[in-house]
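Thread: "does anyone have the structure for this chain?"

Original post by V.I.:
We have the sequence but no experimental structure in hand. Need at least a predicted one for the grant figures.
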Amino acid sequence: MDSQRTVKRQSTYSGIGLHTGNITSVTFRPAPPNSGIRFVRSDLPGNPGVEANIKNVVSVARGTTLGNGNFQIQTVEHIMATLCGLGIDNIIVEVNADEPPVADGSGLAFVETLEKAGIEEQNVEKDYFVISEPVRFSNEDVHLVILPSDEFRVSATIDYKHPILRSQYGSFIITKETFEKEIAPARTYCFEHEIESLKRRGLARGGSLDNAVVIGQDGIHNKELRFPDEFVRHKILDLIGDLYLVGKPFKAHVIAIRCGHAANIALTRKLGQLLDKSISHRTTRVLKGDFVGKVLDLEQIQSIIPHRPPFLFVDKIIMSENMTKALGFKNLTINEEYFRGHFPNYPIMPGVLIVESMAQTSCVLFLARSELRKKLPYFMAIREVKFRKPVFPGDQLQLEVEVTRARVRGGKIQGKAYVRNELVAEAEFMFSLVDR
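Reply from O.Q.:
Generated one for you, tokens below.
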């Protein structure tokens, strides 16, 4: 079993931003299992964050940009590639500007910073995205295909009509060791004739021969290359980073011809749609066909159970007609008091409160019966509790509960919590009914 990974402690790297030219820093922090990769802007009020996911890509202009509402983080591909190459599944990436440092234009500085933090295995199995059939993207002379494989391999070809850089091909099985030695050192590059155009567009303000390989008509301006095929290796670095935005590590063979960020992201979007369909197919929802009964608003909920803000964790409930199932909703905002301390700079809903949300929905389900209105449920046991994914401000919890055993003096309920159709937590509740 391959285990999920995070870092043991925080570690920071500072340097210049490629496009803004500003001094910026990136800090890597540990994150719990199944939480994924999350970028946080520490320079903005409230330290807003964005999940490193294809759904949050807002631009591919000379780099991949993530956005969430009113803020963005540019050029995340080198960090994403490094996290993928080192096998890191869960981490907080805190940036104090709108882009991380470019370093020397490669992934080496991020490899060194993460290894300084130490890589720690977590006691949760790694969740691979296993490709079962080919997925393709083509646009004129750009072609990408991802094929089923028992390992993660990337093969890429670049082809330019340029006197200095013409065709290069590279193919690598991506392991931690291969990534560190063969892919991470490859630097970003551009052609000399592109520089003025980039600067007119407000890009590459921090670019120099210290962080990019510049190709002129008569030769390469840098003193030397790190590999004879450094250019195709850097394309592979970018491709790995863009693909990792699907949200899971791969077991697949990726073949790319003349790829760039736009094509990489287009392929990753197709993979994301495939993954969403797979999750939707695997997720059994009790909502279908059952919830045609009464809808309880907040006032009605408070007339049934004694819980009150700030310890009321369900906003609306739909009861099934036979009153054996219920669907509760809890809308989360950054204003929830517990987000201030759980955790600073990385707000997530405490797992115990997710369980409490399911428990309160269960209480309403039982006490909504007229003959039980004068009762109060005391929980006797909570069993088989599992937390699958973290829950963030802005999420809506869907709380699905079902009575599996009902008796005069108590019962048993199975509860599940979802966010966007993905299971985030589940538990079994046993309770006793007493007079109020």
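V.I.: this helps a lot. The domain at 295-435 is CATH 3.10.129.10 (Thiol Ester Dehydrase; Chain A).
O.Q.: and The helical segments are 77-85, 108-117, 176-183, 195-200, 230-243, 261-282, 298-304, 351-367.
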